[in-house]
Design goal:
It is a single chain. The chain has helices at residues 2-15, 20-35, 37-40, 44-53, 68-78, 84-92, 96-103, 106-112, 118-129, 140-150, 156-181. The protein is an all-alpha fold. It is globular and about 40 Å long.
């Protein structure tokens, strides 16, 4: 539980004032993760902490590359000396490798942060892809549509999400099946 409280406090301090909408989204993602503690068993705190921290790379004082998964993970590793598993979850959440590829940063991301356990990454991605920008829970299809609407067709985020859509929907369906099976 110590990691979760630390993660909540860190995310709040970085996002609440400068990015209240991002903070609302983060709270919703963490709420989703909390609701899946039974599915996660011993890894629950790690995933909940990563849910709180997944978007800290958007914080204006952390953004160095403009690629929030990498900026957030680097901050956690270098400034907070956070656990490498936590850093990897933040670095790789929600198909970050595809956006890294679009940005020409694939080698930076994959060279610095190993791919975390897929089952844990899938749950974090599920939580992110079923939470809207205001923190509300919604279907993955609506979330993906919202992202595509927010970023125009020429934007690299739009291209990345378009490439990722089948994988993101598959991940969400896989986690939903795990939830339905009780873990």
């Amino acid at each position: 539980m110590g990691h979760v409280l630390w993660a909540w406090d860190l995310a709040r301090s970085l996002l609440e004032e400068p990015l209240p909408r991002r903070w609302a989204h983060t709270q919703g993602v963490a709420e989703q993760a909390e609701s899946l503690k039974d599915v996660l068993d011993a890894d629950a705190d790690l995933v909940v902490a990563s849910a709180w921290l997944h978007d800290i790379g958007y914080a204006p004082n952390l953004a160095e590359t403009g690629f929030h998964p990498l900026d957030g993970a680097r901050y956690l590793r270098s400034v907070e000396q956070a656990d490498e598993h936590l850093c990897s979850l933040v670095a790789h959440h929600s198909g970050a490798v595809v956006e890294a590829d679009e940005r020409g940063m694939f080698d930076d991301l994959t060279g610095e942060f190993v791919l975390p356990r897929v089952d844990l990454l899938d749950v974090l991605t599920y939580c992110d892809m079923t939470t809207g920008p205001d923190g509300s829970h919604l279907s993955a299809e609506r979330r993906i549509s919202e992202i595509l609407d927010r970023y125009g067709p020429d934007d690299l985020v739009h291209r990345a999400i378009t490439r990722l859509k089948p994988d993101l929907l598959g991940t969400v369906r896989s986690v939903e099946a795990r939830i339905g099976d009780g873990g």
